[in-house]
Design a protein that fits this description.
Layout lengths: L5 E11 L4 E6 L4 H4 L5 E5 L7 E11 L2 E6 L5 H4 L6 E5 L13 H4 L3 E4 L4 E9 L6 E6 L2 E6 L5 E5 L4 E4 L7
Parallel strand pairs: 7-12
Antiparallel strand pairs: 1-2, 1-6, 2-5, 3-4, 3-6, 4-5, 7-8, 8-9, 9-10, 11-12
Amino acid sequence: MSEKRYFGVGKLVNTQGLRGEVRVISTTDFPEERFKKGSRLYLFHPTLAEPLEVTVASWRKHKGFELLKFEGYDSINDVEKFKGGELKITEDQLMELEEDEYYIHQLVGCEVVTDEGETLGKIVDVLTPGANDVWVVRGPKGEIYLPFIDDCIKQVDIENKRVVCHLMEGLL
């Protein structure tokens, strides 16, 4: 049996009030789905030997944070120990994406070649600075930053871990 893979959806940064709510900085594109009442999450924390499964009892937004309350954790004393933890989901909880949308874990490790056949290296990270994502490629020419736009990214083959790009002027 293969080991479960987990994917981060939020950082638990503090408690909120006395009734067991926690402040979470969301790292998901789908907070409405991830944090809705009844959602199953896995809490990772240095004090826990293995992930702790928690169920969302309530969720609301407040001053840039997601405020969550977990079933069975009704006071600040129950959740204080979770500060600094990370909330994750399992692979089977991932959402289906639209065509031409990818999860970061699918892109990292893909080999990138130009439309002229030159190997640029592998994707090592994806930055999300604003209007479009930027794929960080590390290879023989050092780090190259490729904008995820139609003029640059020509083909993405997740199954074969290969991306074809057009090197626009100024990218090298």
